Amino acid sequence: MPTKVVSASVLDRICSTHQGVVARVASSPKFDWPEELTQEDSAAYGRTYLALDGITDPQNLGAIMRTAWLMGVQGVFLPERRAAHLTPAAIKVASGGAEHVPVEVVDSLPKALETLKNKGFWVYGLSAEGAVGLWQQEFAADSVIVVGAEDRGLRPGVEKICDQLVSIPQVDVNASYNASVAAALVMAEVTRQRKNR
To answer: Measuring CA to CA, which residue among 148, 128, 28, 34 is closest to residue 83?
Structure first.
């Protein structure tokens, strides 16, 4: 599609948060996850998915999407209800992540996690109560990382499905990491382990 120079007021009508440029994207990355799960050789060093449980802040979602892109995550699962989705604000913060990482909005996050487990994935939930610290956890080649809301953490039904709860070290037990920072720390460790395999 050819480029066109227009006034700022025209851009304002399309997107109030533009920085002088607006682009129309025709499609998002395709995420046919049930089909992908049948392809044994789809990733030479394993597959990593993220599942976000109760992340309602579009800024956090956008930051997580950007890191997921740069860490080679193959897909992100979002619950249909009580969760941030790919709004213009989230896409802006993602700065390319939303165009590279497929997203699947699911009716039931626990059901999606069960499907992944039945296909050989290990499900790791982030929790301050986790029995294993991040630096001690050896992540499976096919992994799902579940990140909960900052204030409530993982919902009980989601936590119950996790194979392992993993904690991230911190010096103040009365505080918590921002959800996007916690996700980034874990994605970095999973990527480090994958490269060392």
So the answer is: 148
pLDDT, tens only, 123-151: 999 998 899 999 999 999 999 999 998 77
Tokens 């626990």 correspond to: 110
Calpha distance 121→173 (Å, rounded): 30
Residue environment code for 25-40, b if the CB has 16+ CB neighbours within 10 A, otherwise e: eeeeeebebeebbeee
163: part of which helix (H) or strand (E)? none
**Separation of alpha carbons 190 and 138, rounded Å:** 8
Cα gap 35→130, rounded to integer Å:
32
Q: Which amino acid is at 54?
A: G
Q: How far apart are CA 146 and CA 159, in angstroms?
A: 9
Q: How far apart are CA 58 and CA 13, in angstroms?
A: 21
* pLDDT 10s digits, 151-191: 788 999 999 999 999 999 988 878 888 899 999 999 999 99
Residues in the chain, how many?
A: 197
